[in-house]
Amino acid sequence: MDFATLAFFAAILTVAAATPGPAVVALVARTLARGRQGAAPFIAGLILGDVLWLAASILGLSALAATMGSLFFLVRLAGAGYLLLMAWRMWTAPAEAPDVAGLPARAGRGGLFGAGLALTMGNPKTMAFYLAMLPAMVDLQHIDILGFTELSGAICVVLSAVFAFYVYSADRTRHLVAGTSALKTINRVCGTVLAGTAVAVATK
After folding, report:
1. How far apart are CA 123 and CA 129, in angstroms?
2. Residues 195/80, Cβ–Cβ less than 8 Å
3. Which of 33, 65, 158, 166 is least buried, going by the fewest C-beta atoms within 10 A?
């Protein structure tokens, strides 16, 4: 794949990823309430979801995706359900100091990774990007293994950078807040935002 096409794809993906959607909202809300701990597996799940949608687009699975609406609806419900669980834990959690913030042990890295993956696989914004916009940017008929690897690499780099920026910014904001009362308010506000995001994901 030529550099110009890859750079164009990366630029459009950067804009799309930086535009707040369910993934960004969930990531920022969780970081504000719980800090950076656990952000990496959640982001990894989000990125894998994008790579899978890229593969689906290259393999010409747009029609299949359209006919499997019920399956993707179930995936969306799974992602929404986990967001609701996160929202409930944030709403009911006691205020914690920023340096020890983190989800309870029962919300392990595997669960966060699965939540990120389910959220991306059921995200209408991501579906539209890879199944509708991507074919207009890249000639998918001539994408080989190397081309897929290059596009996947661009996805990993771009999304890692964008999501890391959001996590860093949210974590810095959290550390500027002092006092258990303020932290408890952040937990509940973020829990409410996550609950709203879960409803949006499930109903779109």
Report:
1. 10
2. no
3. 65
Go through 59-72 and write b for each residue having 16 or more CB atoms within 10 A of its CB, e for each that does not. Answer: eebbeebeeeeeeb
Question: Rounded to an integer, what distance in angstroms lies between the CA atom of residue 197 and that of residue 195?
Answer: 5
Model confidence over 60-100: pLDDT tens digits?
765 555 555 555 566 667 666 766 776 776 677 655 544 33
Q: Which DSSP string corresponds to 30-86?
A: HHHHH-STTHHHHHHHHHHHHHHHHHHHHTT-HHHHHHTHHHHHHHHHHHHHHHHHH
Where do we find the tokens 């809300």?
29
DSSP character at residue 99? G
pLDDT in tens, 156-176: 999 999 999 999 988 888 777
One-letter amino acid for residue 47 of the chain: I
| Whole-angstrom distance, CA of residue 29 vs CA of residue 131 | 28
Coil/strand/helix, residue 178:
coil
What length does the chain have?
204
What the block records as the tokens of 35 is: 């800090």
Residue 169 CA to residue 6 CA, distance in Å, equals 28
